[in-house]
Amino acid sequence: MTARQDERLLELLADEATEGLGPAERAELETLLAAASEVEADAFEQAAAAIDLAYTEIKEPLPAALRDHIGAAAARYLPAAAATEVASFPSPTPSRGKGPDVFRWLGWLAAAAVLVAAVLDLLPRTGTDEAPETQIVQVPVPVQPPPPPPPAESREQLLAAGTDLLQLPWTTTEDAAAQGTDGDLVWSGEQNEGYLRVRGLPVNDPADYQYQIWIFDRTQDERYPISGGVFDVPAAGEVVVPLAPELDIVEPTLFAVTIEKPGGVVVSDRERLLLLAQV
Amino acid sequence: MPGILARVSRGDQEAVQECLDCYGGLVWALVRRRTVSSADAEDAAQEIFIDIWKNADRFDASRGSEAAFITVIARRRLIDRYRRAQRRPQTETMEGAPEVAGARPEQLEAYAEARIAARALEALKPKEKHCILLSAYLGLSHGQIAETTGIPLGTVKTYVRRGLNRVRDLLRGDRKADGETAQ
Fold first, then answer.
1. Which member of B11, B45, B117 has the closest CB to residue A62?
2. With pLDDT > 70 as the criterion, what percentage of chain B qualifies?
3. Which residue out of B54, B72, B134 would a mutagenesis test of the A interface target, given it has the greatest number of A Cβ atoms within 10 Å?
4. Over 60: is that where the pLDDT of A242 sits?
5. What does the DSSP 8-state code read for residue B35?
6. Are A164 and A189 contacting, i.e. CB atoms less than 8 angstroms apart?
7. Calpha distance A189→A250 (Å, rounded)
8. In the sheet where A210-217 sits, what is the strand order?
9. Of A76 and A274, which is predicted with more confidence?
10. Which residues of A touch B115 (CB under 8 A)?
11. How many A-B residue pairs are in contact by the CB < 8 A criterion?
12. Fewer CB atoms near the end CB (10 Å): N or C, chain A?
């Protein structure tokens, strides 16, 4: 096989594992596989399945009626049993059921519209407050840049020198964890850099839950906002967190903070929506 | 003791019930994420279990867990259903957006492949990880990913393949290590 054929084979295997193949591509794949006996034909399917398995949350068993129907019909597809084996195979305990509400991304924007009206009633931080204890939080990110200066310092530098700046106060939702919080979100479009500052969020145990930042961008599908990373509040007081967006932000419209499982999530169910900052 | 799928392949009806107990929830979660209605989900689940019954004899424990094997079967059926549905006029509306999930400690402890996949993804660049999750987990086509992210289609395909490559290599390395340990 030529290098080009190798490349094409891998491309078709990846396509098969993720979005399937049409008849012509299927035939092409079969031809290439016939000439490459050393290639594990289903290795990419196994890889995709492993990813799916890692991220799939098992909330509930099969519905009972469906389960009974499938079980009753199974005999049609199986050989007659040669012997009956009594097995005591331990069944894993299904995950606790906690079905989220149906996710409606438009609800994010509706909630934001309602809360924007409340912004006027939210007192900003005043200079008469006692100086809060500032906590420096290291946000875990997949790609590690060179060690940056402390986030609070970087935030100040951005405010001093950044252009195309947004500085947006947080508005709180009715979630209990959001009560008594305040702070702001600073974002520089030119530098694609931003910082969350918030005071009053409950201290969290990262093994229990973490806070996650979300960025809505006008150029992105609103069903899939961009994650800005997860963070913790290790002690009472103020935290300053650099945003770590997964993609370049082109035109942000809304920033949000939710409570999520340890490590964060790919798509949030907004069950624990805490803070919003609308552009 | 033979595993569940080995006994299913021999027609053991008790094993069938155990299979539904152990993996019914997994199949239902996979199905619910990729179907547009409850009726569609039930149809898909039935088809997947028929595929499982028919292919139970092909399970090879040296290549991975039963859960991973079942997930491969489920994904094949769901991708096929999706492709067929795209060729028909859309008559149903979405009932809800994709379900929520994150890398859960319980899932990672239960399945070695899940741990390996999660580790592999953490080493990817953010855009690569984003694309591979939209593809392998949420089931978006490469074209849909390009449309929603603004990343060129060719780049999306490269990122997806890179992500799968990485997971594949780690799975292979893990199997090889298991084989050496067993010797």
1. B45
2. 84
3. B72
4. yes
5. -
6. yes
7. 7
8. A171-172, A273-278, A252-260, A210-217, A226-231
9. A274
10. 54
11. 285
12. N
